Structures are given as structure tokens and as C-alpha cells.
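[job 4471] stage=fold_predict status=RUNNING
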Amino acid sequence: MARKSDSETDRLDDAARAGWLYYIAGNTQDEIARKLGVSRQTAQRLVSLSVSERLIRVRLDHPIGRCLELSERVKSTYGLETCEVVPSDPDSPSTTIGVAEAAAAELERYLVSQHTVIAGMGTGRMLRAMVEQLAPMDCPQHKVVSLVGNIGPDGSASQYDVVSRISDRVKAPHYPMPLPVIASTVHEKSLLLAQKTLRNVLDLASQADVSFVGIGTVDDDAALLRDGFVRPDELRSLVRAGAVGEIVGWAYDAEGCIIEGLTNDRVLSVPLEQPAKRRVIGVAMATPRLRAVRGALRGRLINGLITNERMAELLLDS
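[job 4471] inference complete, writing C-alpha cells
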């Protein structure tokens, strides 16, 4: 077993060296093969392994003109404080890597501060992808707090919870919200919100210096429906009331106005400010979420956006 472990370590060492030679030192794969004493094919595999094992992180630092133009236009059109637009991959429109990388880089800009930063976190596929791109750091001075419950209706942990994963990455204390997104009844909501420990988390979340949130749809593919937080009839009621999107469980219409009553009466997440007074950054790119993203922007539920070219173009077409 020891020999196998040593072999695995040697393989990763070689991959890290090959990745450094290629991405940092600018060597060709032929040069890497010669310097490491391996075949060109092996050198190519080692370089690929360095990326797949996240030994090397490749980030685009050059500001692409088209993306910069779109970013400025989206900021101006919707009155945003910040907006970043990354290139779209025409052959892989569903890939999250580019947007996730940009979101991770934005979060890291806050985490490098020596002053305490409270970072609020929503949930969802995009934020989980963001965490996977986050560089390991040592940030005991910061706090990472959940804006939304991380427990499923059956009591299981949410697969898209991110605060614990971020805490593991950056060594910062984290404050989860051990609740479902939506309570079963208004009475249950009152009982849960009366708990002192929960009030402490909610109070901390309301002080977040920056928050990152996913933007969900209110349709047949809604995460709230898939995860069992709302029933089909409740979803249909939201749609009839004009709901097009949701952020941390709070449903809103095409103009970004929070829907009155219905499931919003039972949401346990941190209330959304309108307009957002602190930095709230939406991370979204899937075109089926267009109406939800546009509504969040129109209602100023978010004042920052990280997205790709295609979504930015659609937002400007309306």
C-alpha cells in the first residue's frame, strides 16, 4: 500500500511540474518531454492531469473587448455596481466553468482583505461550481454565512449547500442555516424563527458585506419543485400570481416585485432588500433563466451580476 501511495504522489508531482513548465514557464510539450525524460504523449497527459487535478489553475486575465463592452452596457442599462461577462462556449452552452471561475475570482478579491469580511452565500448549481474553482486560502478573520436553509424537506443535507465547502477551502468559520428553505406552515415558521441560534445566523447574514446568490426559475423545472419545497399546485399559484424567478426561496415577478402571500409567507431565508443596499451579486448564465435574471435586475434585488456573453446579449435585447 505504501508503494502505491508513493507512486500516486510521484505521478502528481510529475503532473504539477509538467503543468508549471507548460502554463507558467511557457515550454512546449516537446520541451517538457525532453526535460522530464518522457514521451511527448506522456507529457501531454501530465499537463492535462495537472488541470483535471486542479494542481494548476488557468484564469483568463486579458479583458476581451466584446465582453467588456457587454459588461458596461449591462451595468448602464440596469444600474449595476458591478458586472462581469465571460466568453460563451458555442459548442458547450451549458458549461459553468467560465462563469464559476469569474465568481470565484470575485469572492477571492474579498477574502484577501486583512479586515473581517462577512460573506453571505445562497445555494444552487452555479455557486457550487464557484466553490470548486475557489483557490485554497487561510482566512480565519472572515465569516461565511448561509442566506438560506441547507436542509431538505426530508431532513437530508442539501447537495447544493456551499458554506461548509467554502469554509473547508479558505479555513474561515462558517454559519450554516439548519432549516428547510420553506416551512410547512406559517406557524412552523414562527416557531423556527423564534430560536435564538437561528436569529443569530439571520442577524449575521443581514450584515454581509457581500453576498453571492443563484437565480432560480419559477416553472416546471424550478429547483424549489424538484427539491420538494413546493408542491405542483403551489407552483402553479405562484405562476398565476406572476412569479418568474426566486432568490433564496423568495419568489418575485417580472419587475422584481416580491410576490405577496403564497409560499413567500413561509420562506425562512434572509429577507431580500429592495433595492439591495449591500453588495449582492447574482451568478447566472443558463438562458432558461433569462426572465428570472431580468426580473431580479429590474427590481434591483441584485446590484452585481456575473454571467456569460449569451445571457448579457439577451438581457440587452429586451
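[job 4471] summary: The chain has two domains: 2-52, 65-317.
[job 4471] exit 0
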